[in-house]
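Write out the 3D structure for:
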Amino acid sequence: MENYTMEGRTYRYYGQEAPLYPFGYGLSYTTFQYRDLVLSPPVLPVCANLSVSVVLENTGQRDGEEVVQLYLRWEQSSVPVPRWQLVAFRRVAVPAGRETKLSFQVAAEQRAVWAQDWRLEPGTFTLFAGGQQPGQQTRAPSEVLSARFTVTGAAQPLRGC
């Protein structure tokens, strides 16, 4: 084997073709609504971690569980990267008619790209939060919120942070 690229070989690099059963695929007996996605800070240094919070509300008539998923997309990268990458997930039980606020940390190393070694690059990123992958078509209604953040500074090796 001489071609080690992942292009067309894993679901993360398929391009526009969606996987048959994406992460979080399934049905629920209730409905959920996401709101108040907050990224803190919205502008951060290249080695800093990102704090994320989102409110999840069970809008249905039954108690239920939801797998809250966070995906990261590089808007511009110096090397090929996945169209989005799962950076966090959590299964949450929410009683009918109730809501919960969830907090996550997205570590700097989760933004690292491989270019002969792992390195962090400045730029604009989009973070998605929801019960499915961005753009996923499902039978069960679910939504995905998104927000952008900016990383400032010079590119540097991950081990330098």
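The longest strand covers residues 64-74.
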